[in-house]
Design goal:
The chain is α+β, with helices and mostly antiparallel strands and about 160 residues long. Helices cover about 35% and strands about 20% of the residues.
Length: about 160
Amino acid sequence: MNSQRNEIFEAACRRAPQGGRTAGPAPAETLRVIDVMGKPQPIVPSHILMGAARKIARLKSADALIVEEKGSLVGILDARHLRDAPDDRRVDACLEPLRLFLAPTTTVAEARALLVESGASSLPVAAGPFLIGSVSRAAVERSFSRTTAPLPAAERTPVAA
C-alpha cells in the first residue's frame, strides 16, 4: 500500500513544473498546494470508537481526521463520517481509505481535478513520508475564485499611447 502511495506522490511531483514565483496573484495554473494548504488534520488510531473520534475533532476544531494503523496512515474521516456514524462504531469500520496524497508542489488546478475526481472534501499533503498539511476543496475553490476573477475596469481599459 505504501508503494502505491509513493507512486501517486512521485507522479504528482513529476507533473508539477519547476520555476520561481512572480509578484502579484499567481494564476491557478502556477499556484501550488503549499500556497493554499491548511494545517494537518489530527491523526487518530483506527481502534477507537466514533464517539471518541468526534470528541477529538471537536476539541481540535477539525472537520476531518486522518486515521492511522500500525504506524501507517490508512484513511480519513470526513465531515459526513463524523456526523453520521454511530458513536459505538469503530473508526476503522467508518473510514474512507486514503488513496491519494498531494505533493506541496502540485498545482491548485491539479489538486482541484483530483479532489473532484476522487469526491474527497480534502486531501493530505505529504513530502516524502512526512504529513505536512492538508488542502480542502473549499480552499482550492477560494484560490480559483481569486485567481480567475475578472480584472477591475481600470485594468481592462487600454491606455491611449
